[in-house]
Design the sequence.
């Protein structure tokens, strides 16, 4: 799929993205705390190169890191900036392709690419380009944090859907308005790529209004992604699991070579 389709997917989702979470503010704090613990330093320069509407970037800004957020989706990046400002936080945001990051060499102490964003890139060439760009903007020995779905399990089982998630507005009493989200996955013949249909059901005057958004992913195994990171100039790569970190997805943790 052309890269514009990924931007379109997240442009269309930007206003409703928080509804994926049962409590978005709690997720912001929880994910920021988990990533901060892995960073292990105070007030470092962080680039979140797939910031979306700001879940991880705002979480890290709450921990007083100096965060810059970029995303392929202009609408998502703009919302991240607004959400940070609403919380009286400083977060610089811009629309940018992670394969062509618009920053000087060695600009950041940490680069974050979370929430299964890297697997939107569908070829080794594009994944390598993104990882090489992340390496370029990191200082020597800088920290890389990449999270993906647990693709080793998914490549074995090839699931065709995700369970529905129900979000109830925080100001609603029991029985108040709810939204429902779930996904359908259509695997390609190679067994590695899959088309995703994201369904969002929203209440509308006693009926349900359905929004469907589509995009494509590459289910990268952990060994394969670690190998691509090594080729892009990262060392000491290891996978850290959710039960160890408290983050909701497996994290590839690596250092920029010196």
Sequence:
């Amino acid at each position: 799929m052309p890269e514009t389709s990924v931007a379109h997917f997240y442009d269309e989702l930007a206003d409703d993205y928080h509804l994926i979470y049962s409590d978005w503010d709690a997720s912001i704090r929880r994910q920021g705390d988990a990533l901060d613990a892995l960073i292990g330093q105070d007030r470092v320069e962080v680039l979140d190169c797939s910031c979306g509407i700001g879940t991880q970037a705002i979480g890290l800004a709450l921990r007083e890191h100096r965060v810059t957020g970029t995303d392929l989706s202009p609408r998502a990046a703009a919302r991240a900036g607004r959400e940070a400002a609403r919380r009286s936080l400083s977060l610089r945001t811009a629309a940018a392709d992670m394969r062509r990051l618009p920053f000087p060499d060695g600009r950041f102490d940490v680069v974050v690419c979370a929430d299964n964003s890297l697997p939107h890139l569908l070829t080794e060439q594009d994944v390598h380009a993104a990882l090489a760009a992340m390496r370029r903007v990191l200082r020597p020995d800088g920290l890389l944090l990449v999270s993906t779905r647990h693709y080793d399990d998914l490549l074995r089982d090839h699931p065709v859907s995700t369970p529905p998630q129900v979000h109830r507005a925080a100001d609603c009493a029991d029985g108040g308005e709810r939204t429902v989200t779930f996904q359908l996955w259509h695997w390609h013949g190679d067994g590695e790529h899959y088309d995703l249909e994201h369904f969002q059901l929203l209440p509308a005057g006693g009926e349900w209004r359905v929004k469907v958004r589509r995009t494509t992913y590459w289910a990268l195994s952990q060994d394969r992604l670690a190998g691509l990171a090594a080729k892009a100039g990262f060392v000491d790569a290891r996978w850290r699991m959710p039960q160890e970190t408290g983050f909701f997805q497996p994290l590839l943790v690596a250092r920029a070579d010196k």
The mean pLDDT is 94. The chain has two domains: 3-150+220-256, 153-217. Residues 153-217 form one domain. The chain is about 30% helix and 30% strand.
